[in-house]
Design goal:
Elements: E1 2-5, H1 11-25, H2 32-36, H3 40-53, E2 59-66, E3 70-79, E4 89-96, H4 105-119, E5 125-130, H5 136-141, E6 145-154, E7 157-166, H6 175-178
Parallel strand pairs: 4-5
Antiparallel strand pairs: 1-2, 2-3, 3-4, 5-7, 6-7
Helix pairs in contact: 1-3
Length: 180
């Protein structure tokens, strides 16, 4: 498994991972019709192609590239969006295909992007996660603390999110966070 910076030619694979993981991760949390209508071709591939074309140091994407399966996960992040917290940087998305979860790929993606964001001059980090999503425990295991919450809508359904924060990105390189 290689963790690397995403390239424009990864757009379709990232879009496919995005759609598949949303359908499995958010089943029962988001409207079925919304999840069924997600399309890698019609929306996500264009979005990811746009993101990857404009990738900068302050917004970047990393992928987990398996020699046999190709792109099996991705992590996207950059400058914090909104002003609900004092954090500098934000993880926008972290998704790994079901068959590749539980073996450290998400952790590797997260740490690589956090390292990049820290090297880019950011001191603190934020990630928003649906309050019903069991994946929220991953962020707690990485040392994140709930520092904010917000309500919103996705696909016509009301959602509640927790904002997990790390006041010092460099703490993510400590042995407890890296699992070493």
């Amino acid at each position: 498994m290689i963790i690397r910076r995403a390239r424009i030619e990864d757009a379709s694979a990232i879009a496919q991972v995005h759609v598949e993981t949303w359908r499995s991760a958010y089943a029962g949390m988001l409207a079925d019709e919304f999840l069924l209508n997600l399309s890698a071709k019609n929306h996500e591939a264009r979005w990811w192609r746009h993101v990857l074309t404009g990738q900068t140091n302050s917004h970047c994407v990393y992928v987990a590239d398996d020699v046999d399966a190709g792109v099996v996960g991705f992590c996207s992040g950059g400058r914090k969006r909104g002003n609900q917290t004092d954090c500098d940087a934000e993880i926008y998305a972290l998704y790994v295909l079901d068959d590749f979860q539980g073996i450290g790929i998400g952790k590797s993606l997260f740490l690589e992007l956090a390292k990049h964001l820290g090297n880019d001059g950011n001191e603190s980090l934020l990630v928003w996660v649906l309050s019903q999503n069991p994946a929220r425990f991953f962020y707690g295991s990485m040392g994140g603390k709930i520092i904010a919450s917000r309500d919103g809508r996705v696909g016509g359904k009301r959602i509640h999110e927790f904002g997990y924060g790390w006041p010092k990105i460099e703490t993510l390189s400590l042995p407890h966070a890296a699992g070493t």
